[in-house]
């Protein structure tokens, strides 16, 4: 039986030049931000492209690469034509091979998951209607797993984050639980030939638990979120994965703050800082300092909150690092401003809260619809509490427009609180229009 042979992509390697794979991956991420795209590029991805493992990039990477190298085509960059990659199934069927299991996917379709579909005897599919790439193959005969299964788990994590950025959690949460079950089934039933593969599977399963936990958090299921975060933390401890542990504590702190468990939020943030102190990622420590600040603000401790905010700004100012975890792609200046706005809001300092919330909205790329809706909802709430009802209502109307595409119980709950604050000002035309629309808003 003929087998396909991987051909190194020498053209792409030439374009990288003297830069290391990590440095080139950082350049790819910067180029993505320039055009409002989001890719989770790291040195491993660059290595897979150069080795020929990725024959054709997904559409997001295609747009970024063509932006980086204007005038060049995908073929010039050393990739195969997309129709050649996608035509494998048709060629196999023509040759008499059984048809693989494939769903219709959107423009972010990945080569990794196409291979997972085609090589797995059994595949678990979740959220096909949304294009969620939650394909996690079942364990192979003998219970072993390898690169295909690990890559599928890692891609499921990226897919969930991408869809959450654009659509919010409500439509994704229950669907995303399916690939999570598949990932932990692989860990429970399987073994890997190499320690590095096993480590990646533990990390991937833990990150998937955190991603699904965040969907639970954002869709109004805090108990489920807490359980999933605990599962991820246990996975991190078993694997000795400090980066995963820091991420789990970051999410746990955020959830505890939202639930009003402010001391727990502080303790979890401090534990995350301890876990992450040797990871060489100032941005990670900045985010964890912001988590601590949020807990301090909830406790009403303004001095300690300001101290934590100061540390966060200092660390953030050190810039990005190749050691920044992949999941932190969301953490830029808009998120920094939004989290600081939440601190001042908790402390009742509405002018400062409003100022930082305005900056978060102004800086946020409109490509990330969910975060834009969240930041505007925060701004509307701060304006309402700060005595600017008409502007609060106008901002709330903008959030309502975004909720046609974004499904987030958390954002809806914020708007409901804002509407309640604005009821005394219902005589104003803008406020009245907002109250009427928000009252008619269908439940999530």
UniProtKB/TrEMBL annotation:
InterPro entries reported in the protein's UniProt record: TPR-like_helical_dom_sf
Top-level taxonomic group: Bacteria
Protein's name in the database: Tetratricopeptide repeat protein
